[in-house]
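Support request, please re-run this one:
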Amino acid sequence: MLSKLNKEYQFFQTMPHNMRVLLITNMLYSLVLPVVEIFMAAYIMRYFSDTTYVAIFQVAMYTGVIITSLTNGFLLKNFKVAHLYSLGILLSGLSMVGMMFVKDITLVGLIISGTLIGAASGFFWTNRYLMALNSTVDENRNYFFGLESFFFTVSNITVPLLIGALLASIDGVLIFGMAFDVYIGYRIVTIIVFVITLIAVFWLSRGNFENPPQKKFLFFRFDKLWNKQILLAALKGLVQGFLVTAPAMLIMRYVGKEGTLGLIQGISGGLTAILVYMLGRYTKPKHRIITFSVGIVIFLIGTIVNGIELSMIGVMIFVLCKVFFQPLHDLAYYPIMMKVIDLVAARENRNNYAYILNHEFGLYFGRVIGLGLFIFLAFSVSETFALRYALIIVAVIQLLSIPLAKNIMKHSYSKNI
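Re-run finished. Output below.
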């Protein structure tokens, strides 16, 4: 066993220096992301007891992503990409601290908090894409995103388990004469998260990342191949908005509290982590469509079961399918996207960031439509109806991305792969 682990470590060491630094930084940030994605939604559900508030928070968050993605393009003219990436990591921790330590959260405060957290995410994700694009080539991107997905999946197992156990054990406990409750537990978690962001920023400083050439980065007309990629991004965004909030909303409503949330994530994530790492390690570009398609079909099955059986069993099966779907989807999607950027940036002689920014608009369009559908169904019919059928609708629409991704792959290579 140790010899196999050493072999994998030696293989990791053969990767470019910047790629290794970025992977380790992302490994550290993967400890933060479950708190942002899962327990923020659970916190809002606990505070407001209404799933529509979670959806509104997510729309505000994604709006913040768009605002800073655009701002980031201008800042790249004067600041290093690694510093902006670090800013995103730090802001995500600070914005969580601000929200958790506010005693009374209003709807306006929720929207402002969501926008600020989204703003931090905008700096993080857009610069992450740019640094990953410049630190990898098509041949090692399966490995990069496979290992990264491994980190995120393992964190999605361990972090929710640890946080769930902390929140469950601390509620009602008296320590040194001070009564602890769940909200104090959330604040302790937030402080720990901020410390981890500081370590991630320190590690990132070990890399030597270059900014893109300073050309114009805001365009409204693109190559036909990139337009297809943007449509694929919109389809991804359609589901992505639900992936962040749906598990927390469903589990808090139909299964239990945060401890249960962590347990379900842990049970479903172990095999996925190993599977995704192995796929990233040994698959080639020609296998991306198969990986992509399998993930989408698994997600569709989970939504159908959840719609038929909206109960503890149905929700647990959906979460299991979601945990398998997300890393499989990302493992194939991001290398496809970056291959297209490589091609169209050279073809149109444009700044790589022009495509990363435009990609965020594509994701945002899909996210807003998906969350808007949920909010519309919740208000016009009922919350139960929305939780039962909105996921099925977006999963069925997501099937369109399979032939679209296949067409994009066909036109991304000069010969069959």
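The two ends are 34 Å apart (CA to CA). The first helix runs from residue 2 to 13.
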